[in-house]
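Q: Structure tokens for this one, please.
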Amino acid sequence: MLTADRVVSGTDVLQLLARCRQGDRVATSRLLSLVSRGSQSDRALVSRELAAGEVPSAITLGITGPPGVGKSTLTSALIAELRGRDKRVGVIAVDPSSPVTGGAVLGDRIRMAAHGADPGVFVRSLSSDGHLGGLVRSASLAARVMGACGYDVVIIETVGVGQSEVDIAQIAETVMLVLAPGAGDSIQAQKAGVLEIADIYVVNKADLDGARATVADLREMLLLNRPSDGWRPSILQTVAGTGQGVADLVTALFSHHEACVSDGELAVRRHRRSLYETRSVIDAVLAEQLAGVDVGEAEDPYAAADASLRMLGRRLLDEGVGAVLG
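A: Here is the predicted structure, written as tokens:
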């Protein structure tokens, strides 16, 4: 029997997945809690059961952009449009974590409260844990869980930290970059960063002065930086508060997904997501296992790191990865 405090076996995970597909929001919340706050062994268990079974996968949309451009309001408008098209929507809203408590601010969930009573929408806020890529390591696995639970589209909204926020391209199949009018200088400054990862560009708050100029700057940037073959990124204007332009945005999302399916890019991006998640797991295991290592009086950090990794390697050989994961 499932307990409220812990899932103890793969059978329990499968039971939770079955309940999720029947619309059990408690089961969905429980699985996502295992992913976001559970131990390494909990996450490994969930991932293993997802990989072992034939589970549905969702279209994964990453929404990124600088703070203040209206990402959360736009996400809420996208949810409404997708629901109007009879799509179930999962949202992973990565909020900045408090430097004092480490907890998430959870502002995104507040802005999406209008969808709280809709059984076809599930919003989960995750703390960024100070991660500079605008994400949290568990976001990729959380997106896979939502897909397995039957959500058609999973939206991952990143923190919004500027040029360094490029990790979203590693896990999202479609990346949507949101900008606001007057972003010309920002566009020039970010050419080598987050601007180059987008599949769809959105100039939100398009009712404000400067929207046309921002669109023109984006078009110039794309002419200089984008290859001539493959998907040609869309540049769309929206007013998220009123819903203006959001229908075209959803149409562009599905068009990009269809293009990725037809030219094989979707398989490439899902493989890239798997590699990213694998590296994230390795990073997390190393950080956890090496956190308490005493390097003594070593003054050479490279020599200390070498000795620590050798020690961990011996433990892996003696005890196995399962023991190290807990």
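A few notes: Residues 98-104 have pLDDT under 50 and may be disordered. The chain is about 50% helix and 10% strand.
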